[in-house]
């Protein structure tokens, strides 16, 4: 089957915050349809749509109460089919975000299942007579008491998100039937939320990477998307190279690719994770990304990303005071767009949007942040409120979920009503309208990068070429070479606030991409956050 996704660029839409068509302050499917021309102009091929299924929205849709209907907040099933057909006219495919590890506690399976041990869907969930010490990703015990049957149910995320029991064959078949229904409607694939947990053995304290994980994925592949020409990507927080190769084996028996997070966890504390970040180890970051490039070459496939709805904006994270927001946006994009893999960009990244930086706890709505505050500050007193709020501004997920900045008018053109989350203060300067026709803008830069990946003399090289990290221990320079057949390219990026003089040993053929006009001969002065891509003789 043609692996079309190797040359594709995927754009993540977080529907609540993308575009509101009816003035209720929340984005919706009709809003997305109205922006398809914008996305086509940018050059993306695929939309990854964060969940739009029926949901009580305890975790903004990652708590699904009916996989086959659309949350009225976002529209109807008719709007969804309309989105699929309209997107097709713009050469854009849609992939859905499927949460198969858990449902909402308001899913009929759970409502019925919790009533009695004899209920047909009781065994669709994971029960225990007594809780063991398993901890939820969203803080506190992963077990919740359910009085009807005098048992505890497992929830690796919020209490309102009970974990599904994949050992139950009927459950698996029900999920596969549902997936096929979506594929029949014209969906081009799926992003699989926290898929690494489906093989869990909670009694043995095993959550990720249980022994049945890969057999289940292979079974699901055969029963559903494996026979179709799809893009599939699994979200995996705990994965080594061997498992990643298995997940994205070129034989097509599992997924097209996975999201792994080594480079995203690089500044996390061993105990308190993102709530107590360390300074960025830039050399470690280069090594991590490069290691993944080399390991997956020829036997797996990487996804390339810096941001998503869980990962607040990289330019705010690693240039905290936003000293060079435009340059930093271009620098991070350049570093990843010339690597091997499929790029995923998160809405607003193409504009250089920054984190909203909500300062007060009552501005936060996200269950993860609120639970973490309760746990770390109130219950366990491991951090002060001030320390926690500092991290929340950087890592609290609401910060990357602020509404899309379409223009400099009221509510940045996102809604005529009251936005569900306050806008980021900089929308009058950072917005789509002001960037689309500006050749120097972050938007134009992304457009250029996407075009180079997809339709240029370098497309095959970017897809297939070898990768070599240069000057691995340099604390400020990210430099790498790619080579394929008779072509080579050299990427140079100065992650630093001072200029950097760099001697170029390779013979330059021409400049492929630069962020400022300059003549490059045997050496170059890279300005703060400047990135440059050259074709070299090999
Ligand atoms: C994934 C999603 C995240 C969600 C969690 C539970 O990590 O990306 O947003 O909260 O799974 O479904």
Describe the structure.
The structure is a single chain. The chain has 538 residues and is of the alpha/beta class. It is built from 15 helices and 20 strands. The protein has an 8-stranded parallel β-sheet, with helices on one face. A 5-stranded antiparallel β-sheet has the order 14-15-16-20-18. A 3-stranded antiparallel β-sheet has the order 6-8-7, with no helix packed on it. β7 and β8 form a beta hairpin. α10 (325-337) packs parallel to α14. It is globular. Bound molecules: alpha-D-glucopyranose. Alpha-D-glucopyranose (GLC) binds at residues 59, 62, 99, 157, 193-194, 235, 309-310.
Based on the model shown, name its key terms.
17% strand; 15 helices; 20 strands; alpha/beta; binds alpha-D-glucopyranose; 538 residues; eight-stranded parallel beta sheet; five-stranded antiparallel beta sheet
Radius of gyration: 23 Å
Overall body shape: globular
N- and C-termini, Cα separation: 33 Å
* Average pLDDT, all residues: 97
Percent of residues in beta strands? 15-25%
Q: What ligands are attached or bound here?
A: alpha-D-glucopyranose
* Extended strand count: 20
Percent of residues in helices comes to 25-40%
Number of helices: 15
Q: Which strand order do you get reading across the main beta sheet? A: 11-10-9-5-2-1-13-12
Poorly predicted spans: none
By secondary-structure content and strand pairing, the structural class works out as alpha/beta
Largest sheet: 8 strands, parallel
